[in-house]
Amino acid sequence: MTEASTAPKAADIQPAAGKLGIMIPGMGAVATTLIAGVEAIRRGLAKPIGSMTQMGTIRLGKRSDDNQPLIRDFAPIAALDDLVFTGWDIFGGNLYEAARTANVLDRDQLEEIRPFLESIEPMPAVFDQHYVKRLTGTRIKTGKNKCDLANQIRNDIAEFKTRTDRQVMLWCGSTEIFLEQTAVHQTLAAFEKGLVDDDPGISPSMLYAWACLKEGIPFANGAPNLTVDIPALRELSKLTGAPICGKDFKTGQTFIKTVLAPAFKTRYLGLSGWYSTNILGNRDGEVLDDPESFKTKEESKLGVLEYILQPDKHPDLYKDIFHKVRINYYPPRGDNKEGWDNIDIFGWLGYPMQLKVDFLCRDSILAAPLALDLCLYMDLAARTPSLSHLGVQEWLSFYFKAPDTAPGNIPEHDLFIQSMKLKNTLRHIMGEDLVTHLETPND
Question: Which intervals hold domain Myo-inositol-1-phosphate synthase GAPDH-like (predicted)?
Fold first, then answer.
């Protein structure tokens, strides 16, 4: 076969027909902000600001062609009108009550869509306080072992499948304690035996991921937990053709790092120190007040600079960086997070300079459009033959603090390279030429 005959064609992608079901473990601030926002947009009450799939464009052909359609008009992405939501939560009440508790959106705005939110009531969740010390659940599944609990999740998924045509799962639950890979994570057989044996290395998020992938459904992780980034679940993902991707939504402070660090590297400016601290008062902040959960988040945040700046290749500029990350729980701030960075750089002849960044952001407002895009792109990947059995979808690194890769690959953290990789993947699967920026002056 020739290379052209084996290249992906847009016609190979299954159409986005019918209802797309979005299943969310952890229906707190991010989930309710996402769902309420989608409904407000569907009713024409708001715009999908921050969402690449809804507002982004993609260049096709030469610059001189001026052909830049909306991404949602270019690729067969599910329409917002076709989205159906369900999920699990450890606290009782419907989504209107959950959104009121999260206190992210204005109450007047919530009142406009109150009946819709009241119609969604989360199912009892799988939860173990060993993995999230600071929370105490009130609506929790019980079972004889982790295998039993995981199969209860599969039963919930099976029921949702009767009401929807395709599904994706998005973990929006709290950050679990730091776990390192052990023997139970190395093969699918070992993992499934561990489910029966109640292995402590298998956390609740892994139960959801296993159940999801067993059902052939894509899984995305909005938290920094060790979940699908283990060989066992990568194996399952490839086996069932259910895509997986990175972890931990890239929202506030790390988003800024992946913008500024590439700028320093591009200009060959040195970096001697980067101190980052956050204050936030939502449930995420409360959970991260526990040192074991913070360790999981810290690992996710600290890796960004090393991967971008490559100190081994640029020792004169980056070999001795002092990088510190702190998160402080401060209840009065609620979901309105503040990320403060002090950055010490140096330039020509080693003369020092400083940048100070104070990002007064809204955590869930930044996360919700990322969550939407991930759901839509993961569904697209599942319908695309050239992507579905790859396992890890590296082209979605744009959305994560901790991008995942195929074994042996180095993750890409530079936001702008990530954006190019994502859009070139869309061009590739749609049978369009990639943009390489090698055009002649007349292009």
Answer: 252-364
256: enclosing H helix or E strand:
helix 253-267
Other beta carbons within 10 angstroms of residue 352's beta carbon come to 10
Torsion angles phi and psi, residue 274, rounded to 5: -145, 110
Coil, helix or strand for 20? Answer: strand
- Cβ burial of 417 (10 Å; 0-12, 13-18, 19+) is middle
- Domain range for residue 287? 253-360
Whether 180 and 231 have beta carbons less than 8 Å apart is answered as no
Average pLDDT by consecutive 10-residue portion of the chain (443 residues)? 58 95 97 98 98 98 93 98 98 96 95 98 97 94 98 98 98 96 98 98 98 98 96 97 96 93 97 94 84 82 88 95 92 91 98 97 96 98 96 97 91 95 98 81 53
How far apart are alpha carbons 281 and 328 in whole angstroms?
8
Rg of the chain over all Cα atoms, to the nearest angstrom: 22
Domain assignment present for residue 413? The answer is yes
**Does residue 441 fall inside a structural domain?**
no
- 384 and 334 in a common domain: no
The closest alpha carbon to 394, from 213, 229, 174, belongs to 229
Residue-wise burial string across 178-193, b where 16 or more C-beta atoms lie within 10 A, e elsewhere: bbeeeebbeebebbbe
Give the CATH number for residue 326.
3.30.360.10
